[in-house]
């Protein structure tokens, strides 16, 4: 007997009715989870700033940098990596809604750029790039878990066919045959939740004494090693990827893992005082 999970969850929570000629406006799980990642992440950063004595008035600026950097990076990354012809023919597509294309690798590049810009003028308060980045990846891991769960609610980024008992039939996704598939979105969401707790544990253990770059390195290695492996269980996002041994997500993950290894090595060479490394 073949067992599977029939997934027919609606991507919409409810619809705001037409009001003064505007609307109706559907409220979707993906948008709610996307926004929730930023809101909860902001509260986590407030807690970290309080514990380490950093100026709380910087939180609003940091949040704004992250929102803009994430959205712009994800949009530009999608077109640059997956639809470059659209980006060069009509660059306005990046900012014109609906935002149906978001690339996680592009989001990471945007976040790194945003953190560098934010930290440039805040070194006097000890908010160096690596100090901020080490703490920000805690919230990025949580946001990643939310976003991938949002992909599940949208029945998008589906996995390849499988006979495992937890295979999902994505009833609302008519692009692929209605057969059990790996819930790849759920795999990535759970992995990001685990990473969130691991990073939070590291920070809670060392706080200000956390070796610079350690948590960034852990984040890059964890996320992109698993991303590389999960891609073998997922359908390709674009047709051109079918012609390659590795798809675009895997190709982009390789330098990200190498970068993570670099950060780990550097953090061990220059540990902050009061941290003992057991070799």
Task: Explain how this protein is built.
- The protein is mostly helical and 279 residues long.
- It has one domain (5-10, 44-237, 245-269).
- It has helices at residues 29-51, 59-82, 84-89, 104-120, 129-153, 184-206, 214-230, 248-269; strands at 5-7, 12-16, 25-28, 168-170.
- The strands form 2 sheets. It has a two-stranded parallel ribbon. Strands 2-3 form a two-stranded antiparallel ribbon.
- Strand 2 (12-16) and strand 3 form a beta hairpin.
- The protein is globular, with a radius of gyration of 20 Å.
Write the layout of secondary structure elements.
Elements lengths: L4 E3 L4 E5 L8 E4 H23 L7 H24 L1 H6 L14 H17 L8 H25 L14 E3 L13 H23 L7 H17 L17 H22 L10
Parallel strand pairs: 1-4
Antiparallel strand pairs: 2-3
Biggest sheet record? 2 strands, parallel
Return the structural class. mainly alpha
Helicity level: 55-70%
Low-confidence stretches: 273-279
Q: Over the alpha carbons, how many angstroms does the gyration radius reach?
A: 20 Å
Strand order of the largest sheet: 1-4
The total of helices stands at: 8
**What is the domain total for the residues?**
1
End-to-end Cα distance, whole Å, is 51 Å
Number of strands: 4
Would you tell me the overall average pLDDT?
Answer: 90
SSE string, helices as H and strands as E? EEEHHHHHEHHH
**What is the 3D shape?**
globular
> Proportion of β residues?
5-15%
């Amino acid at each position: 007997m073949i067992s599977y999970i029939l997934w027919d969850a609606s991507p919409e929570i409810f619809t705001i009715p037409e009001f003064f000629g505007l609307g109706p406006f559907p409220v979707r799980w993906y948008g709610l989870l996307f926004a929730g990642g930023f809101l909860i992440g902001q509260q986590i950063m407030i807690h970290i700033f309080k514990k380490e004595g950093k100026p709380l008035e910087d939180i609003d600026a940091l949040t704004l940098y992250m929102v803009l950097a994430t959205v712009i990076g994800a949009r530009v990354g999608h077109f640059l990596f997956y639809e470059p012809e659209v980006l060069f023919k009509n660059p306005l597509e990046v900012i014109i809604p609906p935002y149906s294309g978001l690339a996680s690798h592009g989001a990471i590049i945007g976040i790194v750029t945003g953190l560098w810009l934010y930290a440039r003028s805040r070194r006097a308060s000890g908010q160096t790039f690596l100090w901020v980045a080490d703490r920000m990846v805690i919230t990025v891991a949580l946001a990643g878990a939310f976003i991938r769960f949002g992909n599940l609610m949208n029945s998008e980024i589906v996995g390849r066919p499988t006979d495992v008992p937890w295979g999902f039939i994505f009833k609302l996704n008519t692009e692929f045959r209605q057969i059990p598939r790996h819930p790849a979105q759920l795999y990535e969401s759970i992995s990001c939740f685990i990473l969130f707790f691991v990073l939070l544990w590291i920070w809670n253990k060392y706080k200000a004494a956390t070796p610079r770059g350690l948590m960034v390195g852990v984040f890059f290695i964890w996320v992109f090693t698993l991303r590389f492996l999960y891609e073998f269980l997922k359908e390709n996002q674009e047709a051109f990827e079918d012609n390659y041994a590795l798809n675009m997500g895997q190709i982009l993950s390789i330098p990200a893992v190498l970068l993570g290894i670099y950060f780990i090595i550097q953090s061990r060479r220059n540990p902050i005082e009061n941290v003992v490394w057991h070799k």
